[in-house]
Amino acid sequence: MTRSLEANGLACSRGVTRLFRDVSFHVAMGEWIALRGPNGSGKTTLLRCIAGLTQPDAGEVRWAGEPVRNAVARFHADLLFAGHLPGIKDDLTAEENLRGALSLRGVCPEPAAIRSALAHAGLEKRRNLPARRLSAGQRRRIGLARLALDPAPLWMLDEPLTALDDAGQALFADLLARHLERGGLAVLAMHHDLAPSPARVVRFDA
């Protein structure tokens, strides 16, 4: 299946403040776009509008040529969304957090695949520790393991490099490159430069 993501004329306000208007873009298979701008400029809101979590004031989003509003279930089945918070439960281990996040999406890897993904993310010796005993960067690495195991073709990630050290950022860049090589697409709200370079940058004024 040929997949693409299109946004046409998106606009959104917060109270009397207009965050953005007339935002349009097209992302094809093997491409990603970056949402860039200062804090509070509307990047997260735009990401949520595209994902269908916030209703825009105007505009339309299409997935594989079809308006998302006409095929919400299919769109969400193809979508891996991660907000700027890691979404980790402190009382669960790294392995339990990863397994739980994947099961919510209907993804149930074999135990060996779970362990391998956590090891690749640098958590092999910490996979059975309660998340409260992990550093902020280690908690983020659970999310990297999730990216390695979830087959969703479309990633929407809000500040995915937050709290990651250089090695963690390099691992994310590698995961993104592999995702694109498989024909995946991504929309990333982020402040950092990243290789491979985005096909398009949507910039927000302060």
Based on the structure given, which CATH architecture of the largest domain is correct? 3-Layer(aba) Sandwich
Strand proportion = 25-35%
Give the helix proportion (percent range). Answer: 25-40%
Beta strands, count = 9
Q: H/E element string?
A: EEEHEEHEHHHEHEE
Query: What is the CA-CA span between the terminal residues?
Result: 39 Å
* Helix/strand/pairing category: alpha/beta
The residue-averaged pLDDT reads 93
Number of helices: 6
Stated plainly, the CATH topology of the largest domain is called Rossmann fold
| CATH class annotation of the largest domain | Alpha Beta
Strand order, sheet with most strands:
6-7-8-3-9
Assign an overall shape: globular
Describe this structure in words.
The protein folds into two domains: 131 residues, Rossmann fold, CATH 3.40.50; 60 residues. It is built from six helices and nine strands. The chain has a five-stranded parallel β-sheet, sandwiched between helices. A four-stranded antiparallel β-sheet has the order 2-1-4-5, with helices on one face. The protein has 206 residues and is α/β, with parallel strands linked by helices. Strand 1 and strand 2 form a beta hairpin.
